[in-house]
Amino acid sequence: MALAVMICCACAAVCVTVLILWRSRQRRLLERLEKMIGDAADGRFSDSCFDESMYSSLENQVARYLTATQMSVSRSESEKESIRTLISDIAHQTKTPVANMKLYSELMEETDMSEEAKEYLMALRSQAEKLSFLTSALVKMSRLETGMMTLHPEAGDIRELAEKTAAAYMEKAASKGLKMEVRGPEVKAFFDSRWTGEALGNIVDNAVKYTEQGSITIRTKKYEMFAAVEVADTGPGMPEEEIPKIFSRFYRGAGHHDEDGVGIGLYLAREIVSAGGGYIKAVSHQGKGSVFSLFLPLPAGKDATRDLPAGASARRSLSSQ
User: Where does the source fall among the domains of life (predicted)?
Assistant: First the structure.
């Protein structure tokens, strides 16, 4: 009987020892896997740091997966950098020729020429200005998408932002017989005034461009978590199914292909506002106009400031061409 008890105790001791060793091995395995995943998340994972002979099958598979993922991320970053460099080079190389085209066309306008020649010259100048805008917009888009642009948001008054934007487009609206006004209270929000001004300018420019009669109203509002700037127009509006498409790159709405523009303005506006922690909402009804709302975060403190990298992450005069 005593022998049986001793044997049982010995077996139990062996089982406990095996269990402790197994759990210790599993803990070390989980710690190594956690370190591998942590290194990968921090961009420090490298398969050269590990010896496959030391790994279990699971560790080996995780290491292979993380290595492939790291290589994919590196290729993606390299491709983004190549695209950014290419676009910047193109913009740099075309800047001077386009500027010269505009200058020469302005000089030629001062000379005597036939009406037909003047029309051709005006068309040439218009295309040069369009090309200049396009290259500039492509550079901005590239910098946003590759995270090269850093936003500097701070607490500011969106009513003041709305008034500055309205002033920049007042003359253009008046030339079409449109009434433009700013309404709403002074509201503090957290935004980069330069870039958010460009985003709002793109939307106001769109409203002026597509509204033939009536008015454009820029209104400020305050909600529980966001401050909002609304741009309401009395333009033609658009079908509901078209609204999700209008923020896509180079998208031109049905029936607007003959209008000036390349379809970048709204895309840039959305990217800018999104990079700053806000969002844009559009509501439209055919024949009744459209309302675009920019929602901007409220400041966390009285003098809250911080830098945010743009991209997926303006210049006041940027249009939505």
Answer: Bacteria
- Whether the CB-CB separation of 156 and 188 falls below 8 Å is answered with yes
226-233/188-191 β-pairing: unpaired
What's the pLDDT at 318? 30
| pLDDT mean over 283-306 | 81
Q: pLDDT-based confidence at 248, cuts 50/70/90?
A: confident
The verdict on 158 and 216 lying in the same domain is yes
Residue type, 231: V
Q: How many domains does the chain have?
A: 2
User: Rounded CA gap, 94 and 98, in Å?
Assistant: 6
- Mean pLDDT, rounded, for 254-269: 70
154 closest CA partner among 47, 36, 306, 262: 306
229 phi, psi to nearest 5 deg: -120, 120
Half-sphere exposure of 234 (CA within 13 A, CB side): 13
Render the burial of 89-123: b for 16+ CB within 10 Å, e for the rest.
Answer: eebeeeeeebeebbeebeeeeeeeeeeeeeeebee
| CATH code, 222 | 3.30.565.10
Residue of 164, 163, 223 whose CA lies nearest to 189: 223
pTM flag (> 0.85):
no
pLDDT reported for residue 41: 59
Q: What is the CATH number of the domain that holds 59?
A: 1.10.287
Q: What is the mean pLDDT of residues 241-256?
A: 78
If residue 87 lies in a helix (H) or strand (E), which one and from where to where? helix 57-109
- CA distance to 63, 149, 176, 216, per residue, from 170 (Å): 60, 29, 10, 10
Q: Is 119 helix (H, G, I), strand (E, B) or coil?
A: helix
Give dist(CA 63, CA 55) in Å, integer. 9
Look at residues 148, 179, 207 and tell me which one is the last residue of a structural domain.
148
In which element (H, E) is residue 285 found?
Answer: strand 279-285
